[in-house]
Amino acid sequence: MAKRERLSGNEAVAIALKQINPDVFPAFPITPSTEIPQYFASFVANGLVDTEFIPVESEHSSMSAAIGASAAGARALTATSSAGLAYMWEPLYLAASNRLPLVLAVVNRALSGPININCDHSDSMGARDSGFIQLYAENNQEAYDNMVQAFRISEHKDVQLPVMICQDGFITSHAVENITLLEDKEVKDFVGEYEPENYLLNPACPTAVGPYSVTDYYMEAKRAQAEAMKNAKDVILEVAKEFGDLSGRNYGFFESYHLEDAEYAVVMIGSAAGTTKDTIDQLRKQGVKAGLLKLRVFRPFPAEEIAEALKNVKAVAIMDRADSFSNQGGPLGAEVMSAMYRKHLQAEAINIVYGLGGRDVTVEDMGEVFAELARIAKTGEAGDTYRFMGVRG
Amino acid sequence: MAVDLNKLHLRAPWQDLTTGMMIHAGGTSVEFHTGEWTAVKPSIDQDKCKKCGRCHMVCPDSAIVVRVVDNARMEGPGCGKTALDRMYQVDTDHCKGCGICAYNCPFDAIEMEGM
Amino acid sequence: MSNCTEIRWHGRGGQGAKTAALLLADVMFQTGKYVQGFPEYGPERMGAPITAYNRISDDKVRVHSNIYEPEYVVVVDESLLETVDVTKGLKKDGAIVINTEKDKETLKKHLNGYEGDVYTIDAKKVSMKCLGKYFPNSPMLASIVKVTGLMDEQQFLNEMRASYAHKFASKPEVIEGNMKALEMAMKEVR
Predict the structure, then answer these.
(1) Does the N terminus or the C terminus of chain C have fewer Cβ atoms within 10 A?
(2) Number of Cβ pairs closer than 8 Å across A and B?
(3) Which CATH entry fits the domain spanning C4-188: 3.90.1150.10, 3.40.190.10, 3.30.1140.32, 3.40.920.10?
């Protein structure tokens, strides 16, 4: 039986964790993800979970402790944002390359500077090449659902990679909204017991984790890691299918909203996609064929599937909530355009950087984007393909 | 699940390597001959050695090994009192030639020699 | 979005405007509505102007922007009328609820010619009388519920009693005072 509730995004992730009851949760607080370990610490204090909660002295340590716990054979996770994620940069790569399943709950916040506590994706987008699987959420419901699915993906024997689940700082993390929760037992049964094949605390098989790899072995190790990320695609869909059967909420690599017959499409990640859906509803009433591709899985990047979904559009705007200072656009823009090129798509494409440092995105803003796409489709001139939205000047 | 370490060699394709390059066996450092890394090795003068054991304790690579010998057959002062005694020797397969043992020997019984 | 009521709260850090917005989301949720309650975050400073928002809808709320054209505005701190354009974007057929001991005519000159309904409530008087301390958020919450007619008054009181019982589990002595403040505010707002 599903439970109707109203929770903030941070509460939703914390409740999912309570239902999962992980073995080890090392944490160091940083706005806006602080509430996740804060709520969870109260569950520990009240005896609602058996988790070993470790208050550490930095994010480098929280990720390192999660890695150590995972290597030992425990189900482990931590949470962070922004500078905290930057500070755990080095161990992020260790978790991935040592093939240690664990989960990192990221609440997206701009990286300094100028210093800012509000939402953009510069923190997790910066970590996009760390080898973590990345799942993004539009709202509290998706953050909860991604958290419930994350360990299953991470621990799958064909994957064994860490998973980052991301939601938008404050916009969803601190907004109270309706949500439907699974029963505790449903989550427990879905996630199951973690039974690693190899782990440090197994006396029957002494194991060394993270040995030095000389040049003769390093490249083979990375090739194997790439294969795991490739395998993750099937596993993400398998887990999503099973989750859909349980919850009635279906997930894939991305959500298509009125995309099937769309002439103008927006590709974006996160909470602003919800706002865009309202824009699309308005435009559809006026007969404008507008559509949305809201990406859930950024790593592994579903390039072929995205290109297939966009094959009939006339013009597309790829919206990045992070700039990569390449003088070309943001990370999503680069990858989606590359995917379109490989499939020989002919649609005009522009890349728009938006929403940095919490800059608001309205229904009307997205209406402007679709209007611009219509102009581009009509003239066949994309103009500047690297643009900014909502900036004074 | 133990892994046959013999499968981890320079001709092994990436598919055959362990997940995350983990090594699923104990004591594998014995098979790693770090002694190949040096051109100098300590030589212990057994006449000067008072068997204090300091070299054994300070060696960072556990490359000063203790051999148990039958003391009854040796000649000189103190011999024959205890039937078995210790003898300190260099494990040249694992000694990296750092010289810490020679530096620490209180009796100047250890010399570093070129190979 | 059809049937969506949008409310904007103006208060000062520490007065509980954010808490009031979250409580409103909470009680409206109990009536079966889709809700959203969220603050506009910046560096947290006691006394600095803050804004919080509510969306209350019959349909799932998907939009995640701030609210620029609300149906209702609640002003938790009267002094904000001097510095913040509280009626900005406020719809003419909506209303503004202000915490003040002044009368409406005196206030109107601060409202940039706003033509819609103006309601006042002396939340300080209500709070001091019922709680012995100045916590404006309960009286302001009751006032906006009364003004909007978003839910039945008795149902509101019942839900709030349950909510306070949960929130003040460790200090139940404040529950009655808060309940009295809600009831009194509902009578006094005009």
Answers:
(1) C
(2) 56
(3) 3.40.920.10
